[in-house]
Recover the amino acids of this structure.
């Protein structure tokens, strides 16, 4: 049997359907991460626009329906499990972002890091599910990450060597 996936292959159909969900989850992760950075930069005294969080919440609601309808072959069950866990973590992040009890953002950071871990796992299980590259974000230019020349340098400079989701440079580590 060939190692390449054919269009009629149930795993290939799953990958095509799940990629839209994955892209949405990545966008939600980026939106919520930007919200965190805005919140950190503004301090507690300033009200932060929660519109990105509401957009993330609506996108996650759409994802819930797509996840429920996703046809999952047995060989993709592990992948689907992590896709669901990433969605659950992002849902928790939305609740934490809107919570008045998570003033310091600890629950929000923990949920975003959990979502990022599950999204990274997806890329290792099946092809076509690359992780979010924060080095291309607008904040990366300010932290000196955008000019990194290779993946190893970007990874170290982005703080992934210590498992942190956000590392904006010296003295600005979050999470």
């Amino acid at each position: 049997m060939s190692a390449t996936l054919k269009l009629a292959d149930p795993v290939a159909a799953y990958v095509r359907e799940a990629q839209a969900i994955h892209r949405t989850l990545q966008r939600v992760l980026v939106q919520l991460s930007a919200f965190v950075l805005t919140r950190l930069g503004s301090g507690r005294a300033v009200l932060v626009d929660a519109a990105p969080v509401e957009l993330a919440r609506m996108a996650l609601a759409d994802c819930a329906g797509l996840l429920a309808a996703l046809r999952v072959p047995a060989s993709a069950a592990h992948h689907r499990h992590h896709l669901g866990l990433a969605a659950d973590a992002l849902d928790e992040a939305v609740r934490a972002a809107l919570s008045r009890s998570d003033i310091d953002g600890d629950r929000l950071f923990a949920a975003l890091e959990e979502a990022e871990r599950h999204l990274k796992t997806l890329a290792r299980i099946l092809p076509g599910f690359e992780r979010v590259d924060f080095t291309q974000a607008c904040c990366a230019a300010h932290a000196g990450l955008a000019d990194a020349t290779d993946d190893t340098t970007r990874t170290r400079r982005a703080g992934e060597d210590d498992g942190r989701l956000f590392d904006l440079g010296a003295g600005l580590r979050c999470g």
